[in-house]
Amino acid sequence: MPAGVLRTDEARFGGLDFPFVPRYVEVRDARFGPLRMAAIDEGPRDAPVALLLHGEPTWSYLYRHMIPPVTAAGFRAVAPDFIGFGRSDKLAARSAYSYDAFVGWLRQFVEALDLTRITLVCQDWGGPIGLRVLAERPERFAAVLAANTLLPNCEPPPRGIPDWPGKLIEDWAAFAAAADDMLVSGIIGGVSRKPLTELAQRAYDAPFPDASYKAAALAFPPLIPIREDMPGIAENRRVWGFLERFDKPFVTAFSDGDPTTAPWAEVFRRRVPGAARQPHAVIREAGHFLQEDAGAQLAEVLVGMLRRAFPQQ
Predict the structure, then answer these.
(1) Is 256 annotated as catalytic?
(2) Which parts of the chain fold into alpha helices (H)?
(3) Which of 29, 81, 258, 293 is catalytic?
(4) The pTM is what?
(5) Are strands 33-42 and 22-29 parallel, antiparallel or unpaired?
(6) Looking at beta carbons, which pairs linking 133-137 to residues 24 or more positions away fall under 8 Å?
(7) Cα separation of 269 and 284, whole Å?
(8) Is residue 288 flagged as an active site residue?
């Protein structure tokens, strides 16, 4: 392993009731060279793809309730672990992570697997990262399902939409910036409607044997571009310029229990042409991690999207 790169022992992922065999893809980093990025890749290889992107501080385990319905319907489910999370390699220094780096690693991942006919499923950080890759490689994407996510650009929301509650993010970013460690399962459980089982708690903590493995989890919150001078603002504004011309299906499926991202559902519906006349959904009895609280509901929305987009599949 290169200096400054950690890899979680595979034994920590045993006995989690997560019966999918991981696939590994090499992505390159300018400083650290080749890094191993893990993913669950299930279903027919020639089928349209549901690209399932997790956020902070989860990993592909978050989609365990959604992968089987997608593949049962005849589609391919690809759920990567971002660098720093899950089974993927982890950089030991917080300073090694940036918004641009996460975008670049995901872009390389999509190109390495030559994914096409993609329905982007993005929650939490999956939106800011995935939507930028969509804007950079639009020919690979067929649709978007946005769930409890955002794309901040420090611009006022459309008329009639409450302003984004940025104070919650500011507090979260300040906490992470000052912390030397975090209980990952506790963070996830704290913003979920349903209590995490002991097995789920163990699964969410599994990628992180100790605090030295959590640099990405601690680095992510302060990277959210919430001020005009932060990296990512200019890039996100360019992505919004792209999305305001995006006429492929764009569906929102936000939960009824996530105040942090709630206003963004209407922002996407107002600003993205592809969102017009789509069957947008509200996922009931779910918190921020709606895949955890109501994965079956969200999977039903996703499978419906895939069947409408690819009726011959």
Answers:
(1) no
(2) 67-72, 99-112, 126-136, 166-178, 184-190, 198-205, 215-223, 233-243, 262-271, 290-309
(3) 258
(4) 0.97
(5) antiparallel
(6) 133/103, 133/106, 133/107, 134/239, 134/242, 134/246, 135/238, 135/239, 135/242, 135/243, 136/103, 136/107, 137/107, 137/110, 137/111
(7) 19
(8) yes
Tokens 């390389």 locate to: 108
Domain 5-309 superfamily per CATH? Alpha/Beta hydrolase fold, catalytic domain (3.40.50.1820)
**Residue 137, Cβ density class (10 Å: 0-12 exposed, 13-18 middle, ≥19 buried):** middle
- pLDDT tens, 257-307? 998 899 999 999 999 999 999 999 999 999 999 999 999 999 999 999 999
- Where in the chain are the domains? 5-309
What span, in angstroms and rounded, lies between the C-alpha atoms of 63 and 108? 22
Catalytic site residue from 124, 163, 205, 256:
124
Q: How far apart are CA 38 and CA 249, in angstroms?
A: 28
Annotated active-site residue 124? The verdict is: yes
